[in-house]
């Protein structure tokens, strides 16, 4: 077997740490929490954090000791955003969805075998679901966005992702089963959008529709989330139509921009 490139392990560890700090959603994260989440030793995590801080990629709050993304990450993110204008293009659709439905609207992107929430627009309905927020990551097949994307992949690729899913220990919710996920995917292939019935947090429902790139690959998704009583069968068709309309608008704009 070929040997991995020199430094691969360090890069993987740094990437893992940066993702964990990013997922803290602006609240910062403690050293001990990073040790627990990464499985690395405390001296290793401490050394890597200080090295990243020296490069401006991370900052530590002196009073709380929590770690946050640094200014250099903002610069890098701004540069990357110019290559991936999806947030600018999709934001008007999020605003329209939130305004017309009253539910919270989200944009998520696919990255390899997971989805990452990029944007959120709060609806007017006072009771909200807090399953999704900027930076939240789920494996494909978990959460409405990942289900919507998975539903539009070919069967072989679907099975490849489903085989990776670890549903043990209720880590992704108490109602997650492969049979249920397959049933949701099959239904989505019929109607074009996903209905996710409170599988991550009981009583917190979601619906999503996939956004396609110029090569017709499902790479992003628009999601609406809320409480179960707001997602009754009679309203699902209305919400589904709204999601499909906005997802089509975003897909079309992305295709036109690439021309």
UniProtKB/TrEMBL annotation:
Domain IclR-ED residue range list: 72-256
GO biological process: negative regulation of DNA-templated transcription
Domain HTH iclR-type as annotated: residue spans: 8-71
GO molecular function terms attached to this record: DNA binding; DNA-binding transcription factor activity
SMART domains: HTH_ICLR (SM00346)
PANTHER family: HELIX-TURN-HELIX TRANSCRIPTIONAL REGULATOR, ICLR FAMILY (PTHR30136), TRANSCRIPTIONAL REGULATORY PROTEIN (PTHR30136:SF39)
DNA-binding listed as a keyword: yes
Parts forming coiled coils: none
Cross-referenced Gene3D superfamilies: 3.30.450.40, Winged helix-like DNA-binding domain superfamily/Winged helix DNA-binding domain (1.10.10.10)
UniProt keyword annotations, A-Z: DNA-binding, Transcription, Transcription regulation
Protein name: IclR family transcriptional regulator
